[in-house]
Structure formats: structure tokens, C-alpha cells
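The protein record now logged underneath.
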Amino acid sequence: MRLYSLSILYKGDCKVHLLKSAYDVSTFSFFQRKIIQYWLTVTFFLLIDYLCHVYVRNDCLAGVVIADTEYPQRVCFTLLEKVLEEFSTQVDRIDWPSGSPATIQYGALDSYLSKYQNPRDADPMSKVQAELDETKIILHNTMESLLQRGEKLDDLVSKSEVLGTQSKAFYKTVSNSRVKCCDACM
């Protein structure tokens, strides 16, 4: 699971302004990184897909997260809500219409991008869900082993019944032999 970009935009009159963005393109080759970063910057204005999560608030402040298909959608929107709320308290609203990545002083995007790379570590709900999934797997394996033990116990019971029947037959044979032997001795 991977996050590639986290951006803050302002949707003004007929124009969208990029206010701040952070990128993690370290998984791409050195020569592709600038192209990928440029592509991410240009396409988050156009992307409408499950890989691109967009959150626009009533005050026209917007956030975009671009993630891979495995990244949970709920965590993306939790991240966007948290980032936009923090941004709106730290950056004056007057700077939004004319702001740019060079002029906006907000440095938390890189830390959020890093922190949310693993949704289990960053989001308590994802952590609980992962623990539930692991518990479900363990429970399934335990039930399976119990069923196998039950089958083994059934095999042991049937073998012990056969052994009991054979021991009774052996006892009768020995008793009959002893009676014949004792009759012969007298």
C-alpha cells in the first residue's frame, strides 16, 4: 500500500489554485521522479477515479490524495479532513486565493504523507480492523484443527472398538483353552 501525493487546493472563481503539495515518488526510478511528480500535479485536477480521493469543504478549501488500489478510502478521507482542518487554522484565509506552494508556510504535509503510508499505524480504525482480520484467520485455523482432531478422535474410537471386540474374542479363546486345558489335567 502506498500514498504518492497529498495536495491542498483552493477552488476560486473558475480557477483552481494549488496551495501546497507533498510527494513521495521514491519508489520510481531517479530519472522518472520529476516526470511522475509533474504528472501527479497536472492530473489531480482531472482524475476522477478510485485512486484519486478529493475532498472539497464548504469554504472552497480542497484536498487531494492519490493512492494505490489497496489503500482504504475511509483513511484517505480521514487524512484529508485532518489536514484541511489543520491547514485552515494555520494559514490565513486571505492567502488562499493568491497562494502558491512557494508562498504558503505549512510544512506538515510531508509528515502526514510519511505517517499515513501504513494506514494501520496512522488510523486506529484500520488497526482494529487488521487485528480483527488476524483474529478471524486464527479462529478459522483453530476450528479447522479442532475438526481434524475430531476426525482423529473418531478414528481412535473406532479402532478402540475393534480392539475391544478383538480382545473379547481373544479372552473367549483363552477361556475356552483354559477350560480344555484344566479338563485335560484332571
In short: The longest helix spans residues 124-185. The chain has a mean pLDDT of 82. Helices lie at 33-43, 73-90, 108-115, 119-122, 124-185. The chain has two domains: 3-122, 129-186.
